[in-house]
Design a protein that fits this description.
Strand order of the largest sheet: 6-7-8-3-9-10
CATH architecture: 3-Layer(aba) Sandwich
Structural class: alpha/beta
Oligomer: single chain
Largest sheet: 6 strands, mixed
Distance between the termini: 44 Å
Strand content: 15-25%
Order of helices and strands: EEEHEEHEHHHEHEHEEHH
Helix content: 25-40%
CATH topology: Rossmann fold
CATH class: Alpha Beta
Shape: globular
């Protein structure tokens, strides 16, 4: 693997992302009301919440696209307010929709991005990434012919040019079919496995459950739960046992901590409703 796209996690001590008392309002609308969390290096951290919970606002602040009203945040050891240029050099942001050029081929997209970043040997960097993201066979095809999953994988590959230690994935599987979602999930797991720190925002409970090392639930501008999946399950009463003990799903936890009767109930629930703890598997 080329050293141009290798990731390192031990360059700067401490968490990759450190957020304390973050606040943001738009006139009378309080979007963030004191958000706190840390993201360990080389881990996948899922920020889970409904639409309008404030997930994208958090990402925009961490990516230096938006200034907070109060609180502090550091990314890769750099303060987002005092050292925005250093933060930008340490991160990459992939939004809800793939930012690729449909007219160009996959390889041309990657070469163009490498040249824009003024990196040497752009062709080699592109070829390495095409191999890593299993796009070599489609390298010379126009991106307009790619499936949704292929486009998203190419988009993530482009975001890794320049070796950012931290990557933000804001709703990365919005609008994708199940097969394409699975392709993106595998890509995200591979990123963390190679040392990249991933902050993933999502409203899909199964996505957070499948990918994240830690999960924070953002609700009405506050983090109301933060932990591993096992720790979040522990927030609920022990499962009742009749024949088989059933562990609570992340959906059970989410609805319990935000309130099942919340009006802001547009979190995407995939699949059939989870059975109760009394039901057999």
């Amino acid at each position: 693997m080329s050293t141009d796209i290798q990731m390192t996690t031990d360059q700067i001590p401490g968490p990759a992302i450190h957020v304390r008392a973050l606040e943001k309002s738009y006139k009378d609308l309080h979007v963030l009301r004191g958000v706190d969390f840390d993201v360990a290096r080389g881990s996948i951290f899922a920020l889970l919440g409904s639409n309008s919970a404030g997930k994208t606002t958090v990402v925009k602040i961490l990516a230096t696209m938006l200034r907070p009203d109060a609180g502090t945040a550091t990314v890769d050891g750099f303060d987002v307010a005092a050292q925005p240029a250093s933060v930008r050099e340490s991160i990459s942001l992939t939004g809800q929709f793939a930012a690729v050029d449909d007219i160009l081929t996959g390889r041309e997209n990657l070469v163009l991005m490498a040249r824009l970043r003024r990196l040497k040997d752009a062709g080699r960097i592109a070829d390495d990434l095409l191999t890593r993201f299993q796009l070599t066979d489609a390298a010379d095809r126009r991106v307009a012919t790619y499936s949704g999953g292929m486009r998203r994988r190419l988009d993530i590959a482009m975001s890794l040019i320049g070796s950012p230690p931290v990557i933000f994935l804001d709703e990365p599987t919005t609008g994708l079919d199940p097969q394409s979602r699975a392709e993106v999930w595998n890509t995200v797991k591979d990123l963390a496995g190679k040392g990249t720190t991933v902050l993933l925002t999502t409203q899909y409970l199964d996505e957070a459950e499948q990918l994240a090392d830690r999960i924070a639930i953002l609700h009405e501008g506050r983090i109301i739960a933060n932990g591993t999946l096992a720790e979040l399950r522990g927030l609920l009463p022990p499962a009742e046992i009749e024949y088989v003990e059933k562990q609570p799903t992340l959906e059970d936890v989410f609805l319990a901590v935000v309130g099942a009767g919340s009006k802001d109930g547009d979190v995407a629930m995939t699949g059939a409703p989870a059975p109760t703890s009394k039901e057999l598997r």
